[in-house]
């Protein structure tokens, strides 16, 4: 895997990036051309159903699904990764991993998919979770087409996560970590959704009820944005 930019592995301190949207004042060119590569983000609190709905979207809309959390967990477990311990600590604590790591993992995964000649439509799940990630990704990787936001009350998400925790084996599916993840979502990730909303780039869907209920709403709302199943 191509190198990840240098981050102090002990403190986890990433180079300072000043988040500033709108993005007009940059002359960095994104790695991928948004007229050839389509990026949709899917966001929502922990337990909102991002992974679950992504499975349907991949089947019906032909996206390549990339989950930021899954890529981080993979990197955490990769033998010899210098970021493994840092990622582990951040995830357990429900904190956002320094964005250079996550953006690089995503960019590399996109590059691999494009090199294989398979898909050029990406559904990026659980990202961007923080304003600096949004800015850095759109500047250096690819501007997004829009963001699906799964809107779900905390009590519903808590129930789902505690249930998932019985079998997921995830270090953060316990009540203490879940509470921290909820706070991180409200304080750090919602501002990203709010900013994209101001740019009219958010497809907001109520994420309560059954998996199928949510998916039906999602399909309806995507159609309004002229995004349709491929089969
Ligand atoms: O999306 P998921 O619930 O799998 O994410 C698990 C954890 O991975 C988050 O709570 C956070 O610690 C980390 N993460 C991150 N930045 C992202 C996505 C996930 O730091 N963009
Ligand atoms: Mg997930």
TrEMBL record:
Pfam families per UniProt: ADK
Domain notes: Consists of three domains, a large central CORE domain and two small peripheral domains, NMPbind and LID, which undergo movements during catalysis. The LID domain closes over the site of phosphoryl transfer upon ATP binding. Assembling and dissambling the active center during each catalytic cycle provides an effective means to prevent ATP hydrolysis.
Region ranges (NMPbind): 67-97
Lineage, top ranks: Eukaryota, Fungi, Dikarya, Ascomycota, Pezizomycotina
Organism of this sequence: Knufia fluminis
The keyword Phosphoprotein belongs to this UniProt entry's keyword annotation: no
Protein name from the UniProt record: Uridylate kinase
InterPro entries in UniProt: Adenylat/UMP-CMP_kin, Adenylat_kinase_CS, P-loop_NTPase, UMP_CMP_kinase
Keywords for the protein's UniProt record, in alphabetical order: ATP-binding, Cytoplasm, Kinase, Nucleotide-binding, Nucleus, Pyrimidine biosynthesis, Transferase
Compartments, as annotated in UniProt: Cytoplasm; Nucleus
Gene name in the database record: URA6_2
Required co-factors: Mg(2+)
